[in-house]
Amino acid sequence: MASPARKGGVSLPERRGHSKKENNSIISKLSQSKLVSRGKLAAGDAAFVTKKLLRSTGRAAWIAGTTFLILVVPLIIEMDREQQLNELELQQASLLGTPAMGPPPQK
């Protein structure tokens, strides 16, 4: 007699001459070996470490990006503004005929 069907699925009858306890195929022996179980464990550990590394790298990138936006971008804007002001003063001085203020003479 076949085993009772599980809820939501169909149970197939077992093959003749093969019971679940007598599964001696090469694939089943190989999948139950210590080498395969250690490989699965190592792959799981590698996936865990990779996930943690990616998460921490993402956090570091977020911190670096926001720090750059908060501290460096305003500095760049202010330096550009200062450069434009210096060029404007130099242009006005040349139009009015006053000598341009250059760098101080070196001794």
Automatic annotation (TrEMBL):
Superkingdom classification of source:
Eukaryota
In its UniProt entry, what is this protein called?
A: Uncharacterized protein
